[in-house]
Amino acid sequence: MEAFEDKSIKAIITNIGGEDSIRTLPYIDFDIIKNNPKIFLGFSDTTVSHLCCYKAGLTSFYGTSLFVGFAENVAMFPYEEESIRNTFFNIEPVGKIKEASGWTSERIEWEDEKTISIKRQYKPKTPWRFIQGNGIVEGKLLGGCCTVLDWLKDTPIWVKPEDWKDKIMFFETSEEMPHPDYVKRTLRNYAASGILHNINGLIVGRPYNNKYWKEYNEAILQVMKEQALQNLPIITGMDFGHSSPSFILPYGVNAQINMNDKSFSVLESGVV
Length: 272
Known about the structure:
By secondary structure, the chain is of the alpha/beta class. The chain has one domain (2-266): Glucose Oxidase, domain 1. The protein is 27% helix and 21% strand. The chain is built from nine helices and 14 strands. The chain has helices spanning 2-5, 30-35, 47-56, 66-70, 78-88, 146-151, 180-193, 195-198, 213-226, and strands spanning 11-13, 39-42, 61-62, 95-96, 102-103, 123-124, 129-132, 136-145, 167-172, 201-205, 234-238, 249-250, 254-258, 263-266.
C-alpha cells in the first residue's frame, strides 16, 4: 500500500512468489490502488495481489519477478527482455506472441557466489500445443497460478463465475508439480461452478520441468469431453509461469486465440 501510494514509484516488481500474499488481504485498500495506477509485475503467489488490482480496476501484469527474471545469472533472457520492452515501453498493442527458442527449470542456488557466473542451461524448444478448438476467439485475460486461485475461493477478491463471461482464462501450475488428478479436479470444480462454460478460451503455461505435460493435456481433454466443451480453444505448454523464460500476460486486456494459424496475440496495450 505504501508503494502504491508513493507518487515517486512508477512500478512495483515483486521479489519472488511464496505463500504469504493471502495474508495481506485484510490490509488492502482498493481505493489506493485505483487512485494510483502503476505497473505491478509478478507471478505465482502474487496471483493474490493481481486479483486485488483487478478488483480495483487496474491492469496488472503476470510475468517474471526480480529474483527469477531480472537477476538471472549472467544476463536476463532475451525473450523476457523483449516481452518487457514490448509490454511496458510501447503504447502500441503487444501483438502476436512468439514461442521461446528454448526453456529451463534448472535451479542454481542464488546464495552461492561461485555460481553467479554460470548460465542456466536451455532445453530444446517444446512447441505450444493447440489441443482442441476451431476458429478465432477473443476475450480479456484473467487467471493465475491454479493452486493460488484455489486458496482464494470465497474471499472478497474471488472472481465469481459470471464475471468470467467471455474471458480467456490463463493458468499454470507451480514448482510443486501437482499430480494430474489435481488439475482434473480443479477443472471439474470450474465446470461445476460455471466458470468453464463462461470463458471463450483457455491457455496453460508449461509445467515446471515440463513434468506431466502429457498427463495434464489428457486431464484437460477429459474434462472438456465430460462437459461437452470440445470446441473450446485451448493452448497448452506456453511460455509463462514457472518455467523460464516467460512472456507477460496483462490482466483485463483483450487477447486472441487463433486456431487457424496456431497463434496467440495480445490485442491491446496494457499501459495506456
